Amino acid sequence: MDIFADKAQTFLRVHALKFVIIAYGLLIVLGAVVLMILEQPEENLLVNEIRELKARFLADNPCVEESSLDSLLINVLSASKRGVGALESSSDQRNFDFTSSLFFVITFLTTTGYGTTVPLSDEGRVFCVVYCLVGIPLTLLLLSSLTHALLPWVTYAPIHNLQVFWGLSRNHAALLHCSVLAFCTATLFFLLPAGALCLLENNWSYLESLYFCFISLSTTGLVDYLPGRTQSRAAHQWLEFATSCYLMVGLIVLLVVMESCWELQQVQAILCFFAGPRQGELRGVGLDELVLSGDMTGAEEEPHYTLPISTISPAFTDSPATPTKELPPVFGLTPIAATKENIPPSLRPDLCQSTSTS
Questions:
Q1: Alpha helices (runs of H) in the chain, residue ranges in sequence order
Q2: CB neighbours of 220 closer than 8 A, spacing ≥ 6?
Q3: Residue 125 CA to chain centroid, in angstroms?
């Protein structure tokens, strides 16, 4: 049984990434099928209702041609998709006053993009492209810098205090801290704002308000819900400014929570299980150290040295019993052994003595 379990675990480790890819594909297909089953009946009911209203209007107004009505509806819907309200002639809603423009910039740079406001001119579209190339990387840099600046205060210090004062291990302290941090974030940035939106927007349910909070902080930015559409102009501007602040602060808090949870041992173990251990990483070890460690892995040998060439030996013998010990090659060059043949005559004592005698 243990052998079978080891083989199964090894098989899962080897093919874990393939299983994740297949599971993710099945998750996408499952989501599409569930949405089709849930939303297609509602869509069909809405289409039938619109067709009945259109037929009733044409029956009540026989002087109106169907083609003219269709053209009017197409233009109105096109303007509405671009953020221009054309159905209420008395409406004073503006999409490009300062507050609305600030709201558009915040949603644009945070990649939320609700889609209710879009540039209407070609110059505005060109500006948005250039502005995006500069603004989005700078926004990501700012969010990352603020996140790493807050981590020592929000995560590392509380975990250290839990270890010191409560005697918890680092793993248990990190788990407890991440649980409390996630609960506080869910309460302060999802549950309470959803309740406030439910009170401000009379036609929103609590679930719809919670849905708006989720699509905002997840940067999904679906256009079906946006606060302030039915409010006065002043209330609309105030809600746009509050939503802009909510997006920036909420994204920073979510990044801090994600970074804190990412450092949990359980999360790292799951990631290591599916992605496999990292190979070939040199952590603080230079290439020269690796070469030296590879050359010195064998048994230790006593070093043997040879006298340098410039050293004058007192005497040399031709006896083979006198061994010559050499150093290993250095930089690819073979060292020269200290023998009579490779020492210059001026450095040989026997020649010097014979010369002086003669």
A1: 2-14, 16-60, 66-81, 98-109, 122-151, 157-166, 170-186, 192-200, 206-217, 233-262, 265-275, 287-295, 349-357
A2: 112, 214
A3: 28
Q: Scanning the structure block, which residue is given the tokens 């918890």?
A: 168
In this predicted model, what pLDDT tens digit does every residue of 247-275 receive, in sequence order?
989 999 999 999 998 888 888 888 777 76
Q: Give pLDDT, residue 256.
A: 92
| Cross-strand pairs, 121 | none
Residue 298 has a pLDDT of 46
Structure-token match 């810098």, residue found: 145
Amino acid at 181: L
Q: How many CB atoms lie within 10 A of CB 286?
A: 9
The first and second tokens of residue 314, run together, are 């007192």
pLDDT (mean) for 319-342: 49
Residue 277 has pLDDT above 50, yes or no: yes
Q: Which two tokens stand for residue 230?
A: 């039915």
Question: Tokens in use for 103?
Answer: 């709201």
Task: Compute the distance between CA of residue 297 and CA of residue 284 in angstroms, rounded to an integer.
Answer: 19
Whole-angstrom distance, CA of residue 208 vs CA of residue 229: 15
Task: Identify the bridge partners of residue 330 per DSSP, sorted by sequence position.
Answer: 333
Cβ count within 10 A of residue 210: 18
Buried b (16+ CB within 10 A) or exposed e, 216-236: bbeeebbeebbbbeebeeeeb
Helix 265-275 and helix 170-186, axial crossing angle in degrees, nearest 10: 100
Render pLDDT for 224-248 as a digit per residue (tens, 0 to 9). 677 776 677 788 788 888 888 999 8
**Cβ-defined contacts of 115-119 (< 8 Å, 24+):** 115/81, 115/221, 115/223, 116/83, 116/223, 116/226, 117/83, 118/82, 118/83
CA 345 to chain centre: 74
Which residues lie across from 333 on neighbouring strands? 330
pLDDT category at 183 given cuts 50, 70, 90 is very high
Q: What is the percent of the chain with per-residue pLDDT over 70, rounded to a whole number? A: 69
Q: CA 352, CA 201: separation in Å to the nearest integer? A: 112
